[in-house]
C-alpha cells in the first residue's frame, strides 16, 4: 500500500465534491458569469470556471490511480493559488471562527498536495 494513499483518497474526494456539485446546481456557470466575468475575465469566465472544475475532476482521477501525480498537483496548486489571490486573500486567514472565507483551507490543500507529490521530500533531481 502506498504511504500516501489516504491523502490521495481524501484529496480526490475533496476535489470531486467541490467540482461535481457545481455541475448540477449551476454553480460553475454562476461562478463564471457572476464572479470571473465581473472581475475582468469576460467573456471567458464560464469557460475558465468549467476548465477549473474539470481540472479538479481529472486531478482526482489521477490521484486515485496514482498516475501523473506531479502534473495533477502542479495544476491544482496553481488553481488554489489563484483562488487565494482572487477570492480568499482579501478575507484574511480564517475560513470560519476568526473570520470567514479566508485562505487557510487552500493553504492546507496545497501542503497536502506537496506531501503527495514529494513523499520523500524535495530533492535536487525530483522537481
From TrEMBL:
InterPro entries: DoxX (IPR032808), DoxX-like_oxidoreductase (IPR051907)
Keywords from the UniProt entry: Cell membrane, Membrane, Transmembrane, Transmembrane helix
Membrane spanning residue stretches: 5-24, 44-64, 71-89, 105-122
Subcellular location: Cell membrane
Membrane-protein topology: Multi-pass membrane protein
Alphabetized Pfam families for the sequence: DoxX (PF07681)
Top-rank taxon: Bacteria
Family (UniProt): Belongs to the DoxX family.
PANTHER family hit by this protein: INNER MEMBRANE PROTEIN YPHA-RELATED (PTHR33452:SF1), OXIDOREDUCTASE CATD-RELATED (PTHR33452)
Name the record gives this protein: DoxX family protein
Source species of the chain: Flavobacterium ginsengisoli
Amino acid at each position: 500500500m502506498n504511504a500516501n494513499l489516504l491523502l490521495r483518497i481524501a484529496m480526490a474526494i475533496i476535489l470531486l465534491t467541490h467540482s461535481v456539485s457545481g455541475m448540477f446546481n449551476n454553480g460553475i456557470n454562476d461562478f463564471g458569469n457572476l464572479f470571473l466575468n465581473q472581475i475582468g475575465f469576460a467573456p471567458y469566465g464560464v469557460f475558465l470556471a468549467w476548465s477549473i472544475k474539470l481540472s479538479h475532476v481529472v486531478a482526482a482521477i489521477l490521484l486515485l490511480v496514482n498516475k501523473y501525480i506531479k502534473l495533477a498537483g502542479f495544476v491544482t496548486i496553481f488553481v488554489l493559488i489563484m483562488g487565494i489571490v482572487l477570492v480568499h486573500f482579501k478575507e484574511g486567514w480564517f475560513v470560519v471562527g476568526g473570520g470567514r472565507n479566508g485562505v487557510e483551507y487552500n493553504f492546507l490543500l496545497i501542503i497536502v498536495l506537496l506531501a503527495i507529490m514529494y513523499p520523500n521530500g524535495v530533492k535536487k533531481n525530483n522537481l
